[in-house]
Write a structure and sequence with these properties.
The protein contains 32 helices and 31 strands. The protein is of the alpha+beta class and 1108 residues long. It is elongated, with a radius of gyration of 77 Å. Bound molecules: adenosine-5'-diphosphate (ADP) and magnesium ion.
């Protein structure tokens, strides 16, 4: 954040009018204009802030700005309302001085805005915390509520405050807000019933009608249309830039934050609605027979709705609008009201109702925001009171408002102009008096207790007899005629007799801010502020608690016949209180100036500004400031602040403070005309000098800081050095100790080594001696042991020898005894005992053998090969014979179970075994295969019926065989049939007989020794069958075929025994050639099949795979 260091930096014109050169009205205005054109709306006159209304929002109220101005000197930054607020707040917090912010200026000059800015600044910089924030929020939110009910659009200002407001904000010792109290001054209630052209009623009416929900409006019996209500002026009902509907929501929200209950808000809105309804009640004249005019309500609908809203009886209100009861001490007199009186009564009720409602709101807000603790607190008062007003037609209200402004000007004069000048005199400063206009004389004209205008108005109002505004004006004319500031056509002062700008029914007052023409009409009435008792009683009767509170005088139990104090009297009293209050506080001024009459931004009307500058007395203000001194300070605090600027006063000055300051000033060579010595204070003429002092002080503080820093650094370095030194000694000590320790350790270990060597040598010597001794002892022991051993062994040998001898003696003795006994008994024993013992023994063994065999007999299966082990060798023969016999017996037993067929089968198998066993390898695999004979079921299968019938003998064997082709060795399937007489080969498919060989034609059959199924049928040479040569066939049932062939051949009566030739090479007669068929063992190829190949004319090779 860039921080401006001085008011003088980047200044447009001059920021402080005190510095203006040359000082004249023109240059003053020019400076304001110049600054205004550059958006610099704030300018100082010393500590007074002049604020020009920019009529547009400027970006100078941001939180950053707040931070910038926070805790800064007043003259440090460019002029701003925040600087004043900060100064006031800090002075309150730090110096315990109650403050007041006096904001003055014409209507529309920006007072209310300024007061809000001050409040928001203070809220932003003061303490934070939940409780504090709530208080702040309530204080800030009281504004929208009061503005809705108390502000209205006027020709000067779209948001003009129509009441005076003074708010005391209370703080605790820390500067945190505790609460507040609001005082309100004289609401301009005539606005409720009538508004000047181009103006509006109070905002709340428009806000309610545009912002409330349909539901709410229905409850309040209202219509959204403004034109339905007599009290609402229509020509400026809608204001540019004012969103009534949104504002209504803001107000509702604000009321909630401030602490209004929902039913309270409702009651308030009901009363607002009631005022609107009241305006719509109209009267019509009705002549009575006694000639007196009475009034009647025209249309009772509005009255009815209003009564419903307030819970009053219609008849009661109706009566109150028609009659007036005057109570004298004992009697009551009722008179009827004519139409004009009825309207008067209606409007009086509306005005009273509204202004009382407003006061109630202020009281209610105060209740919420009042400080919760009773602890002593500091106060900051913010006064935002209606500004000076000059309208086309000025009435009682303007008179009062302007009176109030006169009083404020008084305060200003008192505190800035007079007070200041008096201080110079008090302090004995040479001083030439500055002339300024003191408006005390005008205040006196208005408020003097004997002949002041207000006093005379009261007198008229209280006087019996007919009292009118004219009689009041007459009275003024007589009494005030001589007053310099009072002007009237009819006064005895002949000056104005010809002044046509002054109508007869008016009087004019020369206020400090200009002349104002007041119309006397209405003064008496407004001062009286009469409300017929019938009406207040009717209101009190209403079934509406808020209403009852607002009209306490309507309570019949508390009839008070005394007249209430007049409005003027009340106002004078409250203004008096306010002034006394302000005088106890430290004032801070904001003087608001309005740049033009059009509420427009960027327009600066010289004449208008000039007028305001004049009546606000700003020029005099500057002059007093300039002739006087910009700054003053008690000697003690001055010396305390600047004593470091001079060697003699620094650091201590022993003498009186004043002398110290003199020494200081002389030393600093401040020009003598720049300051004066008062009795207790020094007065500095120019802020420049002050800035000079402050700047020197700042530099000096920097130097001091450097000095302190230097000394501190020196001290720090030195202590650091000392510390280092100390630590160095410690380190050195430790190191030395460590080094010595190491050396000692080395010497110690060397000593130990030497020692150990010596000891070792000694020990070894000793050991040697000891060993020698030990060996001697051992040698002795060994020698003695050997000696003893020798002795012992000798003894042992002797003992053993002795024992042997004894044993030998015993044996010899026994033999001798045995011999003697046997010689004696031989003759009895030898005859038969030996044979008997032998027989008996053999018998016993045999018996045991046979009984044992019986128990361990093997099973009856002929293939069981087990047999018990032989027990004695002498039984070998018996054992083998028994085994053979048992086997034969069990085979016989087995055979005896066979049937005839089975027997035949076994016979066949037996024959096969005789032929092939151990001769052909194929045999082994055939043993387990039963011989089935007819594999083709030839007699049953219809396919072979023809073939069957062609063979007349019984078929012994039918099978499919392969006939080997003589040319290439390939096989062709043929049916092979064997009958008792012949062998038949037939086509497998057709069953046609291909060859039929009678058995006698077969000479021999040749087969190999291997596991193949090849066989050759050799035919008798010269027989009919042998024409085509021998047959080379192969079959899966070779063993069966050959066996059957052999058996059949053997049984046939006319054939010779069939030869069976088993060899791996045989000759076969193929037509004319003899071909050798040779069987070789080959590696298994194409599965396990046998392959046959014609090798050459003479050789046919059959390769049989080796069987595993
Ligand atoms: N500092 C400001 N910045 C912007 N606009 C301002 C400022 N002061 C005043 N105004 C404008 O001027 C109008 C009138 O100001 P207000 O404070 O209500 O006047 P007063 O209270 O003196 O009658 C405001 O509604 C606002 O539009
Ligand atoms: Mg205002």
């Amino acid at each position: 954040m860039e921080v401006k260091t001085s008011l003088l930096d980047n200044m447009i014109g001059v920021g402080d009018m005190v510095l203006l050169e040359p000082l004249s009205e023109d240059s003053f205005i020019e400076n304001l204009r110049n600054r205004f054109d550059h958006n610099e709306i704030y300018t100082y006159i010393g500590s007074v802030v002049i604020s020009m209304n920019p009529y547009r929002s400027l970006p100078i109220y941001t939180p950053d700005k707040v931070e910038e101005y926070r805790n800064r000197n007043f003259y440090e930054l460019s002029p701003h309302i925040y600087a004043l607020a900060d100064e006031a707040y800090r002075s309150l917090r730090d110096q315990d001085k109650d403050q007041c912010i006096l904001i003055t200026g014409e209507s529309g000059a920006g007072k209310t805005e300024a007061s809000k800015l001050v409040m928001s600044y203070v809220a932003a910089v003061c303490g934070k915390g939940q409780e504090v924030n709530k208080v702040k929020e309530q204080l800030l939110q009281s504004n929208p509520v009061l503005e809705a009910f108390g502000n209205a659009k006027t020709v000067r200002n779209d948001n003009s405050s129509r009441f005076g407001k003074y708010m005391d904000i209370e703080f605790d010792f820390k500067g945190d807000p505790l609460g507040g109290v609001i005082s309100n001054y004289l609401l301009e209630k005539s606005r409720v019933v009538k508004q000047p052209r181009g103006e509006r009623n109070f905002h709340v009416f428009y806000q309610l009608l545009s912002g409330a929900s349909d539901d709410t409006l229905k409850k309040l019996k209202l219509d959204r249309d403004f034109s339905k209500y007599n009290y609402l002026s229509l020509d400026s009902a809608v204001v540019n830039g004012l969103d009534d509907a949104a504002n209504f929501r803001t107000v509702r929200n604000a009321m909630q934050i401030v602490g209004f209950m929902e039913d309270e808000v409702q009651s308030v809105l009901e009363l607002v609605a009631a005022v609107l309804k009241l305006g719509n009640i109209e009267f019509k004249p009705e002549s009575r027979c006694n000639g007196i005019d009475e009034s009647r309500i025209k249309d009772k609908n509005d009255l009815k709705e209003m009564c419903e809203l307030l819970g009053t009886e219609q008849s009661v209100l109706e009566r109150a609008f028609s009659y007036r009861t005057v109570e004298a001490k004992l009697e009551k007199v009722s008179t009827t009201l004519n139409v004009a009186q009825a309207y008067y009564a209606r409007d009086a009720l509306a005005k009273n109702l509204y202004s009382r409602l407003f006061s109630w709101l202020v009281t209610r807000i105060n209740e919420s925001i009042k400080a919760q603790t009773k602890a002593r607190h500091k106060v900051m008062g913010v006064l935002d009171i209606y500004g000076f007003e000059i309208f086309e037609e000025n009435s009682f209200e303007q008179f009062i408002i302007n009176y109030c402004n006169e009083k404020l000007q008084q305060i200003f004069i008192e505190l800035t102009l007079r007070e200041e000048q008096e201080e110079y005199i008090r302090e004995g400063i040479e001083w030439t008096n500055i002339e300024y206009f003191n408006n005390a004389i005008i205040c006196d004209l208005i408020e003097n207790h004997q002949n002041g205008i207000l006093a005379m108005l009261d007198e008229e109002c209280l006087r019996p007899g007919t009292v009118t505004d004219e009689t009041f004006l007459d009275k003024l004319n007589t009494i005030c005629a001589e007053h310099q500031h009072f002007e009237s056509r009819l006064s005895k002062n002949s000056k104005f007799i010809t002044d046509h700008s002054l109508p007869h029914n008016c009087f004019r007052i020369q206020h400090y801010a200009g002349k104002v023409l007041y119309r006397a009409e209405g003064f008496v009435d407004k001062n009286n502020d009469l409300l017929y008792r019938d009406l207040s009683q009717a209101m009190y009767k209403a079934n509406h608690s808020l209403m009852k509170q607002l009209f306490p005088e309507g309570n019949p139990a508390k009839v008070n016949l005394k007249r209430p104090p007049t409005a003027g009297f009340q106002f004078r009293a409250s203004v008096g209180t306010l002034m006394r209050n302000l005088q106890t506080k430290n004032p801070n001024y904001i003087r608001c100036i309005k740049p033009n009459d059009k509420k427009a931004s960027h327009i600066f009307t010289d004449s208008l500004v000039c007028h305001q500058v004049r009546y606000l007395g700003l020029m005099e203000n500057v002059r007093v400031r300039r002739a006087g001194y910009a700054f003053r300070q008690a000697y003690e605090s001055c010396l305390e602040r600047y004593k470091m600027l001079c060697k003699r006063t620094w650091p201590h000055w022993r003498g009186p403070a004043r002398e110290g300051v003199e020494v200081l000033m002389a030393d600093l060579k401040v020009p003598a005309d720049e300051f004066s010595y008062g009795r207790s204070k020094i007065f500095i003429r120019n802020p420049r000098t002050l800035f000079f002092l402050e700047e020197r002080r700042r530099q000096c503080l920097q130097d001091l800081a450097t000095l302190i820093q230097k000394i501190y650094r020196g001290w720090k370095c030195r202590s650091n050095f000392l510390l280092l030194k100390k630590s160095q000694i410690v380190v050195a000590a430790w190191y030395r100790r460590y080094a010595q320790h190491n050396r000692y350790q080395k010497i110690k270990s060397a000593t130990t080594v030497v020692q150990s060597y010596t000891r070792g040598w000694q020990a070894r010597k000793l050991l040697r001696e000891l060993k020698y001794q030990k060996r001697c002892v051992e040698a002795v022991t060994t020698i003695s042991a050997f000696w003893h051993g020798t002795q012992a062994r000798r003894e042992l040998r002797r003992l053993k020898e002795e024992a042997r001898r004894q044993h030998a003696v015993a044996v010899i003795w026994a033999y001798w005894q045995g011999l003697k006994v046997r010689r004696e008994y031989r003759k009895f024993f030898r005859a038969n005992a030996g044979k008997k013992i032998y027989d008996f023994t053999i018998q016993r063994i045999m018996q045991k053998y046979f009984l044992g065999l019986k128990n361990t007999m093997p099973s009856m299966s002929p293939v069981d090969k087990s047999w018990p082990a032989k027990p004695y060798r002498f039984l070998d023969g018996v054992h083998t014979e028994l085994r053979r016999t048992f086997h034969l017996w069990r085979c016989k037993k087995y055979r005896s179970q066979f049937t005839e067929e089975k027997k035949a089968v076994y016979e066949e198998k037996l024959e096969a075994s005789e032929i092939f066993k151990d001769k052909k390898a194929l045999y082994a695999s055939s043993v387990s295969q039963p011989f089935m004979g007819d594999y083709l079921e030839i007699s049953k299968n219809p396919k072979y019926q023809k073939l069957n019938s062609a063979v007349d003998e019984k078929v012994l064997l039918a099978d499919v065989v392969n006939k080997i082709n003589r040319a290439n060795g390939k096989g062709t399937a043929r049916i092979f049939l064997l009958t008792k007489k012949s062998v038949v080969l037939a086509d497998q498919k057709t069953g046609q007989v291909k060859a039929s060989v009678p058995l006698p034609d077969l000479t021999s059959v040749s087969v190999s020794t291997q596991s193949d199924g090849f066989f050759a049928l050799k035919l008798k040479e010269g027989s009919a069958s042998a024409v085509k040569g021998d047959f080379l066939l192969s079959s899966e049932h070779l063993i069966e075929i050959i066996t059957k062939l052999h058996r059949t051949g053997a049984t046939a009566e006319d054939s010779e025994q069939l030869n069976i030739d088993i060899s791996d090479e045989f000759l076969v007669q193929f037509k004319h050639d003899k071909v050798c068929v040779k069987f070789i063992q080959g590696a298994p190829k194409n599965g396990n099949s046998v392959s046959c190949k014609r090798k050459n004319n003479r050789l046919l090779e059959v390769s049989v795979p080796t069987t595993a």
